[in-house]
Specification:
Helices cover 80% and strands 0% of the residues. By secondary structure, the chain is mostly helical. It has two domains: 11-210, MFS general substrate transporter like domains (Growth Hormone, Chain: A, Up-down Bundle); 230-422, Up-down Bundle (Growth Hormone, Chain: A), CATH 1.20.1250.20. Helix 3 (54-81) runs parallel beside helix 5 and helix 11 packs antiparallel against helix 14. The radius of gyration is 22 Å and the shape is globular.
Length: 425
Amino acid sequence: MSATMASPVSPARAALLANRNYRWLLGGGLVSILGDQFTLVALPWLVLQITGDSLALGLVLAVMSVPRAIFILVGGALVDRHSPRDVLMWSKLVQFVLLGLLALTLWIGVLQMWMVYGFALGLGLATAFSYPAGSAILPRSLPPELIRPANGMLMSLGQAMGLLGPVLAGGLIAAFGHRQQADAQGLALAFGFDGLSFALSAWTVAQLQLNQRAAPAAGNKPGLLQDIVDAMRAFWADVPLRSVCLYFAAIAFFVGGPIGVALPVLAQTQLPGGAASLGLLLAANGAGVLAGMTLSGLRPNWKLGTLGLTMLAIDTVCGVAFLPFGHINAVWQGVAMLGALGLLLGFVRVAVFSWMQKRVPPAMLGRTMSLFLFIIMGLAPLASAAAGAALRVLDPAALFMASGAALLAIVVIGALFTPIRTVDA
């Protein structure tokens, strides 16, 4: 890898910490991410406490995720039409109100299941606007040379909060005992904490000073649907951007499905320890992703020739590693492999995300990032469903081998038939 060696405290890192906008982004983002982990733990537990029905839990999660996937393109259009700061701030305030009401109705004992569906729908719609706004706000807040170091630090610390948050949330709920009323109070506090985190994060977003851009005259603004169509056309016309996004989505499909579905089956059938082994494997992968994101931010100049060649090389390693992965018979083998793969994937995730933010014009950034998120969100459940269906006819070893072969085929297609290998920052 070619690299520019940095001092113990790199100039980019020092510039980041000295940047007023970044300090607001970092503080508010970390508080919000930590709060989100409380709801991710508390909401499934709440539904199971009320209904004891896994189908009801699946419906609640679907009520959150489907409207988010549908309306995220509208959210991206509003971000470009107005301001990522305004859209992000108001979406966070909406989530503060919804979570506050959920906590209150739970605390006083009047919450019913139909209300839970309503809260889930509202939260899903709010995130349809906050996701593209959050993706578009960083390039409008920082100079281009700080975007990748900023993403590296934000995403790695967010990953750390993702590892720490569920432990804290579970501890808070468990601290109130196992009686139904005590659980209700613990769950209410968890939702209340997340609500307050959104209020604080909205305040930090309001402090940002964004780079200004020219807006179209009020009489010349097209409709939202036309905004989305224009973004799709621009996305398709930008061959390198289109190639990278579709390539990234294809890789995520053949990595996410096996990790999410086949790995638990493998842990149950082939490894000693069962659920404990699965926890160690997932923790190793999460820790690897955290390390890779941190490294990508600290060493943005590390690459094999170009960014595109680096992506292809890393995905080749992942494909080769997947081929024998299903034959592991010891936890330490899986921990070592998933930790290393997580490091590589975390490194390239920051690099690709930063490249997209710098390539897309600010006036199109909200819509373009929402389109990318729309593709990824749409493929995630399909990947899980496909892996689950495949496991009806294949064992985990065969599925991991097939996924590894598919990854290698995607790398070959990307290298030979797309401009990915020439893509660079």
